[in-house]
Amino acid sequence: MIHIKSFTFNPFQENTYLVYTDSGETAIIDPGCHTAQERSEVQEFITSNGLNPILLLNTHCHIDHVLGNAWVKKNYKLELSIHPEEVTVLKSVEVYAPNYGFHGFEPTKADNYLHEGDLISLGKDQLKVLFVPGHAPGHVVFYHEGSKQAIVGDTLFRGSIGRTDLPGGNHQLLLQKIKSELFTLPEEVVLFPGHGPETTVGYEKLYNPFVGQRAIH
Where is the Metallo-beta-lactamase domain (predicted)? Predict the structure, then answer.
């Protein structure tokens, strides 16, 4: 059984996720925790629930999703896994972080690389890596087939899609990948985005104004 706990952190209102099993193995995905209070929230939940963090994963490496990477690596002695196309994106954060007021940002490097189709072990469960670029060049999604849940980062939101005007963005590619990678999942799959509330494949296939059946073309 897979459980998902979400936190909303930093001025970008980014969703940080803990994906954990009944036996406590935990993946920390997109840690946006920047302040001591935010990091305390994560730590307290992990401690009070007896969780054992074993994975640190980024869907992509824009600043709001990586603010807590260095802290998680140090605090839980974990290695960071990202898609190789996100190496430059991650590196650039340390350059522009002060422009957003994050003067205490601590940069870190990836230790492992994720590729399309990879299966990541989380206890007895597995997360499948889907490759959905467009918002960011190396954006991935983590899908748990057994529970029909997916952490989708900034690819698809409830009633919207990720912005594509940032460096490495590609609007047409994002639309194409949402349809080929996410909309081919069962309609009851719950999608947990990088911002805002969760949604489902079925809802977005019908109502999403950019890629849904009722979208204006």
Answer: 13-195
Confidence at residue 215, expressed as pLDDT on a 0 to 100 scale = 65
What tens digit of pLDDT does each residue of 162-204 get?
999 999 999 999 999 999 999 999 999 999 999 999 999 999 9
Mean pLDDT over the full length of the chain: 97
Domain boundaries, the chain: 2-207
Cα 169–chain centre separation: 16
d(CA 212, CA 89): 29
For residue 187, what is the DSSP state? Answer: T
3-class secondary-structure state, position 74? helix
CB 83 within 8 A of CB 114: yes
Longest dimension (CA), the chain: 49
Give tens-digit pLDDT for 95-110.
999 999 998 899 999 9
Q: What is the secondary structure of 120-137 as a DSSP string?
A: EEETTEEEEEEE--SSST
Please state the φ and ψ torsions of residue 48, each to the nearest 5 degrees.
-70, -25
2-207: CATH number: 3.60.15.10
Assess contact for 86 and 136: CB atoms under 8 A: yes
Beta bridge partners of 160: 157
The pLDDT-based confidence of 76 (bands split at 50, 70, 90) is very high
